[in-house]
C-alpha cells in the first residue's frame, strides 16, 4: 500500500430552483465532497411578487386575497392574521360566531398544511403511498372549504370584522363524517410511514437543531417546539378565542427530523380536539361586526402575530390614515426558518439534506412574498 | 422446439447454415416479442397496482382496463426527439442504453418457461445468468459518466457501489441450491424440485435472494441510483425519447428475468399439479413480481450508508452462514437419517 491518498475534488451542485424535492422554486448551492455536503448556500427570490409593495397601492379589503398567496397551504390562517391586524388597529369587535368560524377553519387549514408537510416528507423519503394517503385526507378538508366559501387553496375567507360566508346546512354532517374517518386514517398513515423502521432510520438523529440554535436563528412554530422549547402563541398570548378551548401544546426534545415530523402529527391531533370543541359550542349570530364602509385606519403602527401553520405569522401595519397602508411588512415564518439550513447542512449527506428540507416545512410563497 | 423448427425448415428444403440463421432469427424475434409484451404488461400492472395501493384508479382509458396504455406510451416515446446535450461524451452516451438493453435480452434463452420450453438448455445456465446480468452495471456507469451531469454522475456512482455489493449475497444465496442439486443447469434445478420446492429447504437463502434482487433491480427501497427526490432521475436524467425507453424497458425486463430466476430456483419453476407447466410458471412469476411491487409501494427509501451496512454486515455473513449450514446438512443428513431409523 502506498501512503498517497487519492486526490479528490469538491464540486458544487445546484439543487433547484427546479428540483423534485425543494418544495417550490427554492435553490441551494451545495458544495459536495462525494455525497457529503461541505457548504450550503440559500438562494431565494424566484417567486418574488412584491406582495408587500402591492399592499401599498391597494385598499385594505383589496389586499386580503393577496394574503392567500403567502403560505398557500394554509390560506385561512393568513387571512385571519391580516384581518386581525387591522381589527386590532381599528379596535373592531368581531361577532362571536365569526370568531368561532375563524378558529374552525383556521384549525382545519392548519391540519391541511401539516398533512402536506408530513406527506411530502414521506414522499421525499420515497414513501409515495403515504403521500397519497395524506393528500386524500387533505382533499376532504379542501372539499369542506369549497362547500363553505368556494375557494380551496386561495380561500379569502376572513373579512375585516368577520368572515365572508356562513357554513351551509350540509356542513355539519360532512365534517362529522370527515372527522370520524380521519382518526382511523391517521392511524393508517402512522403505521405506514411514522412507525416504519426505514423511515425512522432515515430521520432519527438527522439534522439535529438544539434548543439554543433554534432560538438563535429565530425558528418558530413546530420547528421550535420539536427542539424542546415550549412556545405557542395560542397559549402564550391567546388571540381570538383560543383561551376558551382545552388543548395541549406538544413539545418534543431531540430536534431531529423525526421530531419535527412527528410533532406535526401530534399537532394535528390537538387541532382535532379544538375542532371538536368548536363544533359543540358554536353559537348562532351574525357574521360581520360593525365595520365602517370605507376602511381608513388612524395613522399609527400595529404589529400582530398569530400562530400560523409554519410558525409565527406577523403583520406589521404602518398606516398614514389613508385607504391603503403606508407600509405593510409581513413577518413570514418560512423565511426565518430556512435561515438555519446552511448551518445544519454542513457535513450532511444529500439524502439527509432532503429530509432536512422536508422537515423544516417551508413554503416558497411565504419566503419570497 | 428447436427440432420442430429444423424439421419445418427441412420440409421447405432449407438446411445447413441458412436454416441455422433462420432459426436464430426466429429465436430473436420470439424473445423480443415475448419480452416486450410482458414488459408492457408489467408496466401496466405496476401502474394499476400502485393505484390500487394509493386509492387511485390508475390508467383505465386506453383499451380494456387501460391495458393498451403502455403501448401508447411506447409509441409516444418512439415519436419523441432524441436529445443529446452538447457537453456529453458522444459514444459513451449513445451506447449506454443499448448496452443496458442487450444483456436484458441475452438472459432469456436459458430460462425454462415450461416443461421442454427452454430455448437453449445451457449446462452452466446459472453462471451464464449471473455473468450477463452483472454487465448491466457497466451501462449504468456509462450513462452516468457520459451524461456529464452531476446528478447522473452521483447516480452512476451509487449504482456501482450498490450493484456490485449486492451481487455478492445474490450469488451466495444461489450457492446453497447449486450444492443441493449439483448442477448449474436451470432445467436440472427445476426437476430437482419435483417433490419439494427449495424455498422449504433454503428459506434463509430465499430471503437473501429477495432482498439482494430488489437492490440489483434498483427498486424501492433500494432505488438509490435513480432516487427521484435526490438525484432527479439519477443516471438517466439526460436521456429522452427511445433512449430513455431502453433504460425503462431494460429495468422491467430485468425485473421479469430475475423473478423468473427466483421462481426457478426457489419456487419450483414450472412444477405444479393439474395445470399445464407454463400456466404454473407464469402464475408464479407474476406472483413474485407482485411481491416486488408490494414492497416498492410500501416502503420508503433506505439511506446509502445504511444500505451498504445491511449488505456487508448482515446479508453477506448470513449468506455465508447459509452456505456453511447447507454444506453441513448435506454431509450430515445421511447420518441423521440412519439415527432416525
CATH class of chain A: Mainly Alpha
Largest beta sheet of chain A, briefly? Answer: 3 strands, antiparallel
Q: What is the number of independent domains of chain A?
A: 1
User: Residue share in helices of chain A?
Assistant: 40-55%
| Helix fraction of chain B by DSSP (H/I, runs of at least 4) | over 70%
Total number of strands of chain B: 0
SSE ordering of chain A: EEEHHHHHEEHHHHHHEEEHHHH
Low-pLDDT residue spans of chain A: none
3D architecture notes:
- The complex is a heterodimer of chains A (369) and B (341).
- Chain A contains 15 helices and 8 strands.
- Chain A starts with 10 loop residues before the first strand and ends with a helix.
- By secondary structure, chain A is α+β, with helices and mostly antiparallel strands.
- Chain A has a 3-stranded antiparallel sheet with strand order 1-2-3. Chain A has a 3-stranded antiparallel sheet with strand order 6-7-8.
- Chain B is 70% helix and 0% strand.
- Chain B is built from 14 helices and no strands.
- Chain B has helices at 2-11, 16-53, 69-79, 90-106, 125-133, 136-146, 150-181, 186-192, 198-201, 203-216, 228-231, 241-266, 277-296, 304-340.
